[in-house]
Amino acid sequence: MDSSSLLRFAGELADTAARITMQHFRTPLSVENKFADGFDPVTAADREAERALRAKIAARFPGHGIRGEEFPETHGSEPYRWVLDPVDGTRAFICGVPVWTTLIGLEHQGRPVLGVIDQPCLKERWVGYHGKDGETELTVQGFHNGGTSDVERLKEAKMMVTDIRADAYFTEDEAAAVGALARQVRLLRQGLDSYGFGLVAGGQMDLVVEAGLHWHDIAAVIPVIEAAGGVVTDWQGAPVRDNGGGGGTLQVIVAATPALAEAAGEALRT
């Protein structure tokens, strides 16, 4: 499949999501909680945008599968599947904080090959693509270096987590491990949500550590980070894989360099 047409279409999807989400952002919103024993919010913006993206994909690529956060998976007849999260960071969205993003990923035979991280409020967009024979392509829109930093040591790293508290995204044990890691880095920022992934791709942040993620939270991020020169692993240092949409969640390290990812993983496992 032609890479230029895929990249162009992915940009069209991001533009479509932006038009819808920005109509709702910083307006009175009805928020539904999807969890009985916690808080996992969803708004009309999430659902309206995902419906629109699904419709565009089905019209353009009727054989492609589609997996999103809000609706059941559509299985395709071809080895391509789109993975969608139109509002990743709904908590930030409902608070009016512009660190939520639209995540659009495309897999080929189960491997993420294209990813878009889009922040329409700030007009910032990162697009990563894995082509044939291992070549990668990164395009950026906004204020970015266009590649990850060269930081390799924890003591030099700028690190981000969404919320370091236990029971927010981390278990008690995970929160303790992340807290210990945070004491080894130069600087810690919280609350950047999926925007932090883009900042790693742009060279502003060096390290993101998360847990409690689902595949739609990370599939689009992998091609972007790898095209920028960074790495994405789980806490054991292995590639992050789709967990099949089951009840389990993913532990993720996003790092500017392989050495930094390895150092973070060792600290988390100590």
UniProtKB/TrEMBL annotation:
It comes from the Bacteria. It holds the Pfam family Inositol_P. Keywords: Hydrolase, Magnesium, Metal-binding. Gene3D superfamilies: 3.40.190.80, Fructose-1,6-Bisphosphatase, subunit A, domain 1. GO terms for molecular function: metal ion binding; phosphatase activity. Signal peptide: none annotated. The keyword Magnesium applies. InterPro entries: Inositol_monoP_superfamily, Inositol_monophosphatase-like. One of its GO terms (biological process) is L-histidine biosynthetic process. Belongs to the inositol monophosphatase superfamily. This is Inositol monophosphatase family protein. It comes from Parvularcula maris.
